[in-house]
Amino acid sequence: MDRFNAMRIFTRIVELGSFSKAAEDLQIPAATATYTIKQLEARLGVRLLQRTTRHVSTTLDGQAYYERCVRILADVEETEAGFGNSGVAPRGKLRVDLQGTLARHYVLPRLKEFFARYPAIELEIGMGDRLVDLVRDGVDCVLRVGELRDSSMVGRRVASLQQVTCASAAYFEQHGTPLTIDDLHTQGHRAVNFFSSATGKMFPFDFIVDGEERSMHLPGSVSVGSAEAYAACCANDLGLVQMPRYHVEQELRSGAFREVLAAWRPRPMPVSVLYPHQRQLSPRVRVFVDWLSDVMSVAS
User: Fold this and answer.
1) What is the distance between the alpha carbons of residues 69 and 75, in angstroms, rounded to a whole number?
2) Residues 145-159: pLDDT tens digits?
């Protein structure tokens, strides 16, 4: 039995939680995946996986073996990639999940540069704002906006986005322009409110006043959970929004949107790349994160 091949099959089954999905991903027959694991368990003398009708999970021995396998496979890949004269470069499939608007604005327009540098890497890109279980979904790294909360992941900050408070010019013509934060209430301003698609939590408007953060909620007729809908509602005169400047830069330049309360802008919004601890040595992940850091540096 090819031990390295067995390790690859085993780790993919663990990551995808399914024999059939792993077989499809590795482009091998499902029977091959099943036979390989049976042989692997027989050789090791332990049970590695627990199978149910819906999911496959590791036993305690299986989890320990998985963690070692990931490190061994990454070390082998990194060792081969480290010998420049051998012509071996990072290769294989890399699964990433990118925040949608950042991907469209910064990352996708420059993908040709990445492939010119690393032609042997195949990218599988998902886009959205939903929380991704990197191990369960088989994702190698994600690009996310906001403060990092998951300590089980390795996080690398790649940008800080300036935020603005703005609305359409037509909105201000109807409701007046707030000159102070208190004017938001005294003038009866309304907001397009934004909620987390993961938790349903409504985000307040934040301002920095004398070095301290001040938060407030504004009434509004509509709440949304995506950046595209947020900007679209603003463009349709439904109220104030607070979002990264890059997303509304064109509208601000044209005068369709107007920024207000610039003296009390909220703190910049961090952008980070997250990846599981066990994949931090992968050459594919490393070169992509380095490239992504360079791409996103222009956003700060």
Assistant:
1) 10
2) 877 665 667 788 899
